[in-house]
Every structure is written in C-alpha cells, then in structure tokens.
Amino acid sequence: MKAFAALQRYHRPTAPLLLDFLAPSALHIRQYHATPARLAESQSNSKPKYVLSKEQREFLDSALRVNQAGELAATLIYTAQTPQVVRSHPHLRPLMKHMYDQEAGHLRTFNQMIAKHRVRPTAMYPIWEAAATFLGWSTGVMGREAAMACTEAVETEIGTHYNEQIREILAWEADAHSRGEELDDELKDMLATFRRIRDEELEHLDHAVENDSKEAQPYDPLVNVIRLGCRAAIKISERV
Ligand SMILES: [Fe+2]
Ligand SMILES: [Fe+2]
User: Fold this and answer.
1) 49 forms bridges with which residues in the sheet?
2) Cα of 234 from ligand 1 centre, angstroms
3) Alpha helices by DSSP H, 117-218
4) Binding region for Fe cation
5) CA of 199 to the centre of ligand 1 (A)
6) Which residues are listed for Fe cation 2 binding in this entry (predicted)?
7) Predicted TM-score (pTM) above 0.90
8) What residues have their beta carbon closer than 5 A to ion ligand 2?
C-alpha cells in the first residue's frame, strides 16, 4: 500500500533524457563555480554568500559525476529486471514501474546538473552500463527475492553515499553560519535535491524488504557482492 501512496505523490518529469543531458549547459550560470566578485555583485542585497574553496567545488563535481552514474545504473537494473519479475509476479508491475520512474527522474535531475555545472561524466559509463544491465538481468533470472535483494543492497550503499554528501554540505552550511554568511541558492537547492532523492532511495529499500529480499538464496553472498561492487563503482567514478 505504501507503494500506491507513493505513486500518487509522484510527479513524473516529462523532458526527454538525452535532450536534458545535452541542452541546459548554455542556459545556466555555474553558480557553485562563481567567483567571489561575481557573487558579491549579484547578491549585494542579502547576507554575504559562502564562497566555496577549490576542494569543495571538486567535491561537488565528483559527487555529481558519481550520482549521475549511479542513477544511470539504477534505471538499467530495473529495465533488465522488470520483465522477468513481472512475468512470474504480475502484481509487482506497479511497484517496479514506480521505482523505475523514480530512478529515471533522478537520472534526469543529474543529467541536468552535470550539464549545468559542466561536470565531466564518468569515463566508465559504458562499463557501468554493461555491469548494471548484467546485474539486473541476472538477479531477475534468480527470481523475485533476488531482484529485491539487489535493490536492498544497492539502496543501502546509495542511501549511505547520499547521506555522506548531505553531511558534507551541512558542514559547509554550519561553517557559513559561523561566519555570518549563507550558502548560495544553487547549493541550497542541491542540498534539498540530494535529501529528496536519498529519501526516495530509502523508500525503495523499504519496498525491497517488504517484498522478501531477505528470503533470497543465497542472501549473504549475493547482498555482500553487490554492496562491494557498488562501493567500488562509487570510488572509481569519483575519480575517473
Ligand atoms: Fe535513484
Ligand atoms: Fe533507487
């Protein structure tokens, strides 16, 4: 029932993925890459804005790169899993569609963000595409419980990862406040977006457990290997 309630809440973006990815870079200012002079000029009427260091901007660049890669992988996992899961368990069709639709929305969001901030996508893109499709297909073949265990494992790592990013930006916000400054609007929006997506990922984790992810055979090796793979992919995509 939680899934249906979430379905009703869900707003589905309509712009095509590819266009979002290619088009917006020319339309927006890279606010978090703005210089102190530009910030002072554009925001002279409000509280002074917190100016990010080079390391902080690099942190955001790598966060956006990882998040976009992760959301791409999530859409591909569900694309490969759904037909197999739904064939033997038709009642799961709305849930699988709901989770896929949310992942597609997350991917659109990060496609827009990396274009807007001119962040280089991961060079591992084709590898992650193949790996995610294989992971979705193979857990789908193993059955409903294994497919749900895959979601449980992925969302455990992704939820933790979003939490780390959120904690980092909150630390910057505390630093800004201690100096009588505030985060620029771009960064506040980004923080809100990360929190919303983190909550949706944790909702997927709940759905997976409610749908017997813990019954997967063999549960421990399966979940552990997927979690290890996620952590490795995150580490690599931060840099490459
Ligand atoms: Fe997602
Ligand atoms: Fe998810």
Assistant:
1) 182
2) 14
3) 125-142, 144-178, 185-210
4) 71, 103, 106, 155, 201, 204
5) 10
6) 103, 155, 201, 204
7) no
8) 74, 201, 204
Q: Residue for token digits 């449980």?
A: 152
Q: What is the mean pLDDT of residues 180-193?
A: 92
The neighbouring-strand residues paired with 182 are: 49
Which ligand is nearest the CA of 154, by number? Answer: 2
Does a structural domain hold residue 20?
no
pLDDT tens string 29-79: 345 666 555 555 555 557 888 888 888 989 999 999 999 999 999 999 999
- Residue 141: inside a domain: yes
CATH label of the domain that carries residue 197: 1.20.910
Q: Give 46 Cα–ligand 1 centroid separation in angstroms.
A: 34
Do residues 59 and 139 touch, judged by C-beta distance below 8 A?
no
Domain hosting residue 227, numbered range: 54-238
Q: What three-state secondary structure class fits 60?
A: helix
The verdict on residue 4 lying in a domain is: no
| Within-domain flag for 216 | yes
